[in-house]
Amino acid sequence: MDPATPTFPRLLPLGDAAWIVEFGRSIEQPTHARVLGLAQALAHAHAEGLWPEVIEWVPAFTTLTVHFAASGQSDAAMDAADALLALAGSAAPLSQPGRRWRLPVCFDAEFAPDLAELAEAQGLSSEQVVGLMTGTAFRVYMLGFQPGFPYMGGLPAALERPRRAMPRTAVPERTLAVAGRMCAVYPWRSPGGWHLLGRTPLALFEATRDDPAWLHPGDEVRWVAIGRERYDELEHAAAAGALQREAWLDDHGAAA
Amino acid sequence: MTGVVEFIDAGAGVSIQDLGRSGHRDIGVPLAGAADPTLLACANALLTQAEDLAALEVALLGPTLRAAGAPVRVALAGAFAPRLTRADGHVQPVDAWRSLTLQPGESLAVGPCRAGIGYLALAGGVQVPLVLGSRSTYARAGLGGIDGRVPRAGDRLHCGAGQGAQRQAPRPFVHVSGPMRVLPGPQDAHFDDEVWALFVESEWRVTREADRMGLRLQGPTLQHRAGLGADIVSEAVVPGAVQVPGAGQPIVLGVDAQTIGGYAKIATVIRADLPRLAHARPGSVLRFRAVSRAEALAARLELAASLRDWTRLIGVCGTSGEPEEAALRAGNLISGMIDARTDTEFTLPWD
Predict the structure, then answer these.
(1) For B278-320, how does the pLDDT look when each residue is reduced to its tens digit (9 = 90+)?
(2) Which residues contact B128 (CB under 8 A, 6 or more apart)?
(3) Residues A27, A141: one domain?
(4) Does B296 contact chain A (CB < 8 Å)?
(5) Under an 8 A CB cutoff, do B27 and A145 touch?
(6) Beta partners for residue B184, in sequence order
């Protein structure tokens, strides 16, 4: 088959204990909805004791990677291939957003070393950049690069800019950043090549909790601009463990 | 009763590892864990304990540990030539591939790992808190280990305490040799047949950029097909995946690799060969060979069987630390173990 025109979904082998289920080749919400639909179908099946040989699955933009146990006497991934492809073909897309978040971010210059530069390069004022960032509903496509690092799609075309030619050796944790058509928050201090636009006082990854990542694939995120005083107050409260995650859900109480 | 060991020297390339942190890759948490879980199992087997207990992985220079308080049993699996310093200051060489007890005040200098990587297991396992189900160190995000980091001089680790018969293996566990076996894909279609041939027929030298995250290799350029290229929409990766960035020099991912990647992957090393891949060092030469899924399964079962067979060779040593000849003969073991007697004129303080 010509690799340029494959039929989706299809299975690609990622070694002898995982399949990549590929639903398409471009980053689009409908394709991602199919990725999450298969993830949900597997979760439901798992909850009923089915697919015990599946140990975990990893959503990405256009793919769901399904990992199999490599401990038994047989090739569990191969044995399950036909059934997995059938499930991928039949699973209903998951179109509804997961949880809806409204998360605070401070755009003060101290936290936003690239805000003025990005604004100028795009022919905008800093205020207009902040307006676009806070006026957009971002969709979490996947987590990776670092634990809890959310790749969020939906960045307005007016803010599209390639990564910095020279990545920074250290980006502070909790920094809000953009690159290409994506937005993200660095959960950890790390090197990074994205444009830094602000900082949230909330630690969006808590390793000591059973459910460490606040954001999951399929979630929707809206950024709410806060002043420096409010930032300090929230950062202090977060460090003291005095904040409830659920309080930052848009429709808290109603959300799952 | 708990034992405590103190790091007199932290060594280099030392980290606490168990079998890693699976189950959280959907939120971007790398597996981490022992780069060679087979040798981790060997070290634990010498202490008659579960093969997945957390131990110290040594990639370069092993630590120097002193028993503080209670006696502590330890065991080494790997190419080490450790030295024991008794409480009175007397220093003597001891063997790897056996258990021994550090009496209070005694210290063990593990020394350099002379080939690949090795493991120092402590009786009862290294007791650090579980983070997301694992004690494995992933220092880049401060997960596991000692407060999210690798050991420093002065750190103290809790483990089990105790005496007990010492056990010894008659020979080191040795991995099979030969090319790293791979399954083609997931993006082998990004390469023409001639480029694939280049991949499996060439020698690949491990560069200095080699650590638990991955091995950057040097060799002929693997050109991507026109129109498909090096970049893909980012998707999950696994340890053993062979990424080929635009410059055409492959990177084999390791146990600390991030969970997603955006480069085409020409092939993926099979699970059975990941433990021996972990022993590659800068300057090592690797080759790759494509295998079928059936061969991959056979290789995995063969590795499990060879570990089981090796574990059965482990025998009890005498209370003086000398192998008990009767036990050895009963176990049908041979010369390598008996030879250990020749350099034991002194009485060792094994319990």
Answers:
(1) 999 999 999 999 999 999 999 999 999 999 999 999 999 854 4
(2) B16, B54, B135, B144, B145, B146, B157
(3) no
(4) yes
(5) no
(6) B267
**Cβ of A3 and B189 within 8 Å?**
yes
Choose the final residue of a domain: A90, A108, A128.
Answer: A90
Q: Distance between CA B1 and CA A205 in Å, rounded?
A: 36
Nearest to A144 among B260, B265, B300 (CB): B260
For A3, name the nearest residue in chain B, comparing CA atoms only. Answer: B189
CA distance B63 to chain A (A): 28
Same-domain status, A73 and A104:
no
**pTM of the full structure:** 0.91
Ramachandran angles phi, psi of B346, nearest 5°: -75, 160
Q: Are A83 and B254 in contact (CB under 8 A)?
A: no
Within this chain, do residues A21 and A104 fall inside the same structural domain, yes or no?
A: no
Interface subset of B 15-44, CB within 8 angstroms of A: 22-30
| A195 plus A240 within the same structural domain | yes
Q: Which residues of B touch A208 (CB under 8 A)?
A: 131
**Own/partner pairs, A121-128, CB within 8 angstroms, 24+ separation:** A121/A161, A122/A158, A122/A159, A122/A161, A124/A158
How many Cβ atoms sit within 10 Å of the Cβ of residue A64?
30
What the block records as the tokens of B238 is 């696994």
SS3 A12: strand
List residues bridging with B134 in a β-sheet: B131
Distance of CA A18 to the CA centre of its chain: 21
What are the tens digits of pLDDT across the range B83-140? 999 999 999 999 999 999 999 999 999 999 999 999 999 999 999 999 999 999 999 9
The partner residue sitting opposite A143, judged by closest CB among B27, B141, B271, is: B27
CB neighbour list of residue B32: distance below 8 Å, 6 or more residues apart: B17, B20, B21, B134, B136, B137, B138, B143, B144, B212, B255, B256
